[in-house]
Structures are given as structure tokens and as C-alpha cells.
Amino acid sequence: MHSKPKVTFKQINKLALPALIAGIAEPLLSITDTAIVGNMDINATEALAAVGIAGSFLSALFWILAQTRSAISAIIAQYLGADKLDEIKTLPSQIIVINIVLSFLLYVITLFFIEGIFKLYNAEGLIFNYAIEYYKIRAIGLPLTLFVFSVFGVFRGLQNTYWPMIISIVGASINIVLDYILVFGIEGIIPAYHIQGAAYASVIAQLIMAMMALFLMLKKTPFSLRFTLPFNREIKRLLMLSLNLFIRAFALNIALYFANAYATKYGNNYIAAQTIAFQIWLFFAFFIDGYASVGNIVSGRLLGEKDYKNLWNLSLDLSKYAMVIALVLLTLCFIFYKPIGDIFSDERSVLNAFYGIFWIVLLMQPLNAIAFVFDGLFKGLAEAVILRNTLLVATFLGFIPVLLIGDYFGFKLYAVWIAFTVWMFLRMIILVIIFRKKYLTADLQVSN
Fold first, then answer.
1. Alpha carbon of 141 to those of 49, 57, 282, 396, 425: distances in Å?
2. Does 442 score more than 70 pLDDT?
3. Among 46, 202, 308, 360, which is 20 to 30 Å from 55 by CA?
4. pLDDT band at 331 (very low <50, low <70, confident <90, very high)
5. d(Cα 36, Cα 38) in Å, to the nearest integer?
6. Which residue, among 380, 100, 101, 89, has the nearest Cα to 231 in the 3D structure?
7. What is the b/e burial string over 8-46, where b = at least 16 CB atoms within 10 angstroms of the residue's CB?
8. Roughly how many angstroms between the first and final C-alpha of the chain, as a whole number?
9. Does any domain span residue 230?
């Protein structure tokens, strides 16, 4: 059988570098809020804790709803590989409309129940009030963010990460500038809105990103946003993919909920430290995901072409590149260990708690690198059931038991981050074993 050309390092980087920049947009919005709010003159520790709690819940909603991005990307990439894009011309607009309606409903429903939700996080007093204020404004961006993620999925399916990068750069830049202006104010011109200012800054940035995404999708893709019936024949598969990825994301966010709930239980300085550590972890995750997303983008096309040999080679190459990124990040953060904490807070009790566990956050980065690469590959292959089951096992048989045991022995934040490490290890090892068994075997069968 004639061997097709390998996906080269240059081709990978052409997709990975823009995807890396695009991928860090949402965590950069959150990490900017964290850094700015943590340096407020009034109640900085309580505000930082509130952003951590509200941000954690928002991240849960974003991640659960945004799973359709991977489903859209996988299906478009497979049809692109098979040279049959005309057959799914109506699909993107249909799923985007469904997503936006769903996100509006979710926004309205959560407004009614948000007080009860934050009480489940053990929030009380000023932290509780701040979290409510921040969420009610920031959650306005839910439909906007979901629309942007859906458009990113369309571009990724078309093997294009350039325009998502441009949208992300503009959005992140606007957010950083507005964060500073609206939180601290400009004397005599703009009042200081404090924690509400951080939320307003994020929503404005998300609105601008959504407008750019709308324009570029209409101008740079073969798809329109005109909703037409009947539903495309692939809508059922896309919705089933999305449903399984929803369940996966729900399991993922159960782990994040337990982490923040227990950190809040330990005290204000602990949840503030947990907020800093998790935002850095999340930033690194999306940073590494630049290469992992190439698996999401390219694997679907290779599957459509039935090119199993290059699919296997792609998994090896992406693992190496992601590992290098992880080791570079790890090394830089160990070198600047103390200054990194100073960026987010000047409260000594918060920093002491943060420095105590930051080394665990760093040492788990190589695990994250491999786990995220195979996560991306399975998303691109539309193997949502495998991803769902992996997260269920990692969360309910790994993360939660380890956290409860650590909490029983009084390990506090150490328990949280040891549990995260076990969680990522299970995610990594399960996906690597299944991928090797399934797709290396397919490659050998085709070769023979």
C-alpha cells in the first residue's frame, strides 16, 4: 500500500502555535481577573476567593457547553478528509443555534439557583456576596463564549487555527486593559468598580470576540449562519457526541467542585491560594493544549482518509512536543517560584499556602502534557464514549477517594493537589493504553 506523507513538524506548528494562542484566551480572561482582583486595596483576599469560586463554576459551565466545539471540529474534519463538505453545509448553523438557545436557558436558570449553588461551595459572608456580584455580570458572557467556541470548532475542522488566534489575541488584549481600568478606575473620569469591574471587562471582551467570530465565519468559511430545516443527517451523531462529552465535562467539573469546596472549608487564605494555583494550572493546560489541539484538528482528517500509520506517528510527535512545552513551563516556574506568587497577592498567609503546593502543580505538568495530547486525539476521532468513561473512572475512582483520604489526615491543599495528580495520571494511562491497542493495531492491519 502506498504510504502517505507524514504530518511534518512544520505542518504541526502551523496549526499548533495559533491554536496555542487561541486556546489560552478564556483562561487568560480568568487569570487576569485573578491577578487584578488580588491586588485591590479593599478586601483583596475575600475578592480573590470569590473570583475563584464563581470562576470555577463558570469554567464548569463553559467546559460543559463548549464540548460541541470538539464534536463540530471532529465531524467537519472527517468530511474534509473524505472531500464531502457539501453534505454538511447546514450542520454548523443548526448546532450553533441549538447551543445559543441552550446557553440562554442555562444562564436564566442559574440566576435563580446561584445562591444555593455557592453555598454548596461553602462560601459565606463577604466572599458569598462578592461571588454573587461577580457571577451575575460575568455569566452574561455565556452565550457569547459558546458562540465563539462553536465558530472555533468550525475553523478547526477546516484545519485553520489562524483566525481563532486573531480573535483570541484581540479579546485577551481588550480584557487586560479594561480589567485594569474598570477595577481600579481612572481618577475623575471612571469610578473604580472593583470586583464588578473585572466581570464587566470580561463580558465586553467576549462580546467583541463574538462579533469578530461572526464576521470571520461568514467571510472565511463555506458555511452560513442561516438556520434551515430539515436537520442535517449528522445532527444526531453530533448531538450524541456532544452529550457524551457533556457527561465527561460534568465528571471533570465534579472534581473541580470538590477541590474548591474543600479549599473554601479550610479558610479564606486557602481558597485564595487554591484560586491562584488553579488559574496557573488552567493557563498551563491551555498552553500545552496548543499541541494537543493539533490531534483534535488533524486526527479526524486522517481517520477520514483511513491513514492509520500517520495517525500513530502523529500521536508520538505530539507527545514529544507537548512534553517539551511542559518541561519548559515547569523549569521557568521553578526559577521564578516566588515572584509568580507576588503577581497575584501580597497577603502573606495566602502566599504561604500557595507556595506550599505550587511545586505539586509544576511537577504534574508532564502528566498533563501526555493526557491532553491523547484527549485531543480521541476528540478528533469522535471517540466520545472512551473520553466519557475515562473521566468517570479518574474522578470517582481516583480524585474523590484520594481527596477524602487526604482530608481525613488533615493534608488540606496537599490533599487537593495530590488528588489532581492521581486524576491526571489515570486520564493519561487509560487513554494511552486504549489508543495504542486500537490504532496501532489498525495501522499494522492496513500495512499487512
1. 21, 14, 19, 31, 33
2. no
3. 360
4. very high
5. 5
6. 89
7. eeeebebbbbbbbbbbbbbbbbbbbbbbbbbbbeebbbb
8. 9
9. yes
Tell me what the mean pLDDT of segment 160-183 comes to.
88
Please choose, from the candidates 252, 256, 259, 278, the residue with its C-alpha nearest in 3D space to the C-alpha of residue 404.
259
DSSP 139: G
CA 172 to chain centre: 15
Would you place residue 28 in the very low, low, confident or very high pLDDT band (cuts 50, 70, 90)?
A: low
Name the nearest CA neighbour of 22 among 392, 297, 215, 253: 297
Q: What are phi and psi of 158, to 5 degrees?
A: -85, 10
The answer to whether the Cα torsion of 292, 160, 95, 26 is positive or negative is positive
What residue type is assigned to position 231 of the chain?
Answer: F
pLDDT at 114 over 60: yes
pTM of the model: 0.74
Asked if residue 4 belongs to a domain, the reply is: no
CA nearest 155: which of 144, 166, 145? 166
Name the nearest CA neighbour of 311 among 262, 381, 411, 208: 381
Instruction: Report helix, strand or coil for 356.
Output: helix
Q: Report pLDDT digits (tens) over 3-19.
A: 566 666 677 777 777 87
For the residues of 224-258, what is the DSSP string, one character each? -----SSPPTTHHHHHHHHHHHHHHHHHHHHHHHH
**Scanning the structure block, which residue is given the C-alpha cell 475563584?**
52
**CA atoms 99, 101, 103, 109: torsion sign:** negative
Q: Which of 66, 65, 56 is nearest to 289 (CA)?
A: 66
Give the C-alpha separation, 63 to 253, whole Å: 8
Short-list 143, 141, 150, 152, CA closest to 94:
150
pLDDT at 426: 97
> Which pLDDT score is estimated for 407?
94
Q: What is the per-residue pLDDT across 405-425, written as a single tens digit (0 to 9) for each?
A: 999 999 999 999 999 999 999
Looking at the DSSP bridge assignments, the partners of residue 186 are 190
Domain count, the chain: 1
* Count of alpha carbons within 13 angstroms of residue 12, beta-carbon side: 23
Domain that includes residue 418, residue range: 9-447
Helices (H), 185-307: 194-220, 235-266, 268-304
Q: Is residue 202 part of a domain?
A: yes
Residue type, 71: A
Using DSSP's 3-state secondary structure scheme, residue 57 falls into: helix
Helix (H) or strand (E) run with residue 22 in it: helix 9-23
Span 44-56, average pLDDT: 80
